[in-house]
Design a protein that fits this description.
19% of the residues lie in helices and 32% in strands. With 175 residues, it is α+β, with helices and mostly antiparallel strands. The protein has a seven-stranded mixed beta sheet, sandwiched between helices. The longest helix has 15 residues, at 106-120. Keywords: Transferase.
Length: 175
């Protein structure tokens, strides 16, 4: 694989909708998805529940001459609830890396950026949920300081078997 030239992480904008929706569809896998595989007509990526400002993206410069940058990956970072009692927490609710950008550190860059953004927003803790059989994601999160804080046994029934939902989290230090 040729080396990618990655741009700095940025907040998504409404114009990213088509690229992000395509990225989600092209990376869909039972390794991480609990919803059925998307079928046409496809929903937009952004909506009332998940606006652009909740998404961080990293782009890579296109290798073709005159090509525009394209989104290599995204991470969605949200408050876990609307309650004031846990306004100090942010939750990762989605991470995807384009197949053509795998192995270039995009996921790690996005996880680190989400921690920095959560701190910037005043959070001192960040959490996520990951399927137990998603070893690559669990390893990435663990290497970035996330620890398993709980397991919901058999939380999902996928491909004819029960799959545990693993809750992970880490401190971000004082905000």
């Amino acid at each position: 694989m040729a080396a990618l030239t990655l741009r700095p992480v940025r907040t998504a904008v409404p114009a990213d909708d088509d690229q992000l929706a395509e990225l989600d569809r092209s990376t869909w896998s039972t390794l991480h998805a609990v919803l059925p595989k998307p079928v046409p007509p496809f929903d937009p990526f952004f909506g009332e529940r998940y606006p652009p400002e909740d998404v961080l993206v990293v782009e890579a410069d296109a290798e073709t001459e005159g090509g525009a940058a394209r989104i290599a990956g995204y991470i969605r970072l949200v408050p876990p609830t609307p309650l004031a009692a846990n306004a100090h927490v942010r939750q990762i609710r989605g991470l995807a890396v384009a197949n053509w950008a795998r192995g270039a550190g995009v996921g790690r860059i996005l996880v680190r950026a989400s921690c920095a953004e959560a701190r910037r927003q005043g959070a001192n803790r960040i959490t996520l949920r990951v399927l137990a059989h998603n070893d690559p994601a669990r390893a990435l999160y663990a290497s970035e300081g996330f620890a398993v804080e709980g397991v919901l046994p058999g939380e999902f029934f996928l491909n004819g078997r029960y799959v545990d939902d693993v809750c992970m989290g880490r401190s971000l230090g004082p905000a």
